[in-house]
Amino acid sequence: MLCVNAATEAGSYRNWTLTNMPRQFSICRCLLAVCIPVFLFTASVSHTEGQDDDSAVHVVVNMVQLNVAVTDKKGDYVTGLRPEDFVITEDGIPEKLATFAEGDMPARDLQTDDVIANHVTVPATHETEHGGNSPQTLQSLVAGANIFILFDSSNYMYRDFVFAEDSITEFIRSLGTANTIAFYSYSRDLLRSATLTSDRAQVLRGVRSTVAGDSASLYNALLLTVKDAARCSGRKIVVVFSNGPDNSSVVPPEDVAEIAQSAGVSIYIISTQEARLDAISTAIFERMTADTGGMAYFAKTWRDERRAFASIQNDLAHLYSLSYYPKPNPNMGWRAIKVRLAGENAKKYNLRSRNGYRLQPRHFSGRTTAASDGKP
Q1: Are 211 and 128 in contact (CB under 8 A)?
Q2: Number of domains in the chain
Q3: Would residue 375 count as lying in a domain?
Q4: Spans of the chain, pLDDT less than 70
Q5: Cα-Cα-Cα-Cα dihedral of 239, 337, 246, 305, to 10°?
Q6: Predicted local distance difference test score (pLDDT) of residue 112
Q7: What is the CATH number for 74?
């Protein structure tokens, strides 16, 4: 188990920044005119063979993966849709699906289908970024989900600790065997009780070993969890159980939500009535989950908690998993994604998915990063 004190690290950085701000500002102002053109140039080109400078900054665009829930007017899930039923645009540019899957069904590599049927040339591959996946591992994109459970073990939880553990345990046991699961807990610090694994017994031991802590640093812990999830291939889901508002984080929730969107991480939050009574927490939870394609639940009783976990399990089992390679786009900032259904289905059904991502610059060291196993 590894314990990370995000508040201490962030606080130290903030104090250093304030102390050195005058000197930094004068230097940065002089260098700004030089740095921006260089960054834009390196961001707009692909990595070239034989490049001698292994410290260049690149913005990498590769496969974009989406989790899409489709429901009818009654809120029931719509099944049996086909790839041609979905229309995706990025900044208004029509995109072509690369892979398609429904629920736990095997993935369809649509580009391979095109090659076989029409002798179409598959686009060249690029480096991986912003929650994309290496094209040679298309099956890993939908071979179950990587689910990170983040449990509030702060002093808010003293009264209902056991009930919450029971609800999480039942949720873990209900998940399909194709999914891998990690269990984290947080109070002031983040505790990685069980890193990503398919071993349910290991995850359940992590749940039962959790003890109550002190203040709640939800957004600090959620940021670290999202970053862990972003390293994984395939679908990435974070399920948060929070028993109250955040009272000690230094990370703003808006930053956490944007990083999750850019990494393709869907966030689900189950909270108790304690957080519901706080209008700010309620608004943050609802917006963060909506922006990332997840959902927010507010439970009054332990029975409501179990129903919320069951709803999430049902949602994961019915998600459509779509991916595409973005077409050339001069926009180097936030890119808006819109997913809709073609034809008459557009009026009959409702869709839920993330609404965009921001290109992430990455500093290359000249070495290819191996696929993460989900460990921090």
Answers
A1: no
A2: 1
A3: no
A4: 1-61, 106, 112-143, 156-159, 273-276, 361-376
A5: -30
A6: 64
A7: 3.40.50.410
Q: Is residue 18 part of a domain?
A: yes
pLDDT of residue 261: 93
Residue 126: name the closest of 193, 59, 72, 208 by CA. Answer: 59
Residues contacting residue 279 through CB under 8 Å, at least 6 positions apart: none
C-beta of residue 190 within 8 angstroms of C-beta of residue 175: no
Residue 88 structure tokens: 């995706």
What is the spatial distance between Cα 59 and Cα 366, in angstroms, rounded to a whole number?
15
pLDDT in tens, 285-336: 999 999 999 999 998 888 899 999 999 999 999 999 999 999 999 999 999 9
pTM value surpassing 0.90: no
Counts for the chain of helices (H) and strands (E), in that order: 10, 18
Determine phi and psi for 210, rounding to 5 degrees: -70, 140
Does a structural domain hold residue 376? no
For residue 374, tell me if it sits in a domain. no
Question: Which among 141, 155, 359 has a CA at the least distance from the CA of 232?
Answer: 141
Question: Which residues constitute the domain of residue 325?
Answer: 1-45+54-368
User: In this structure, which amino acid lies at residue 297?
Assistant: Y
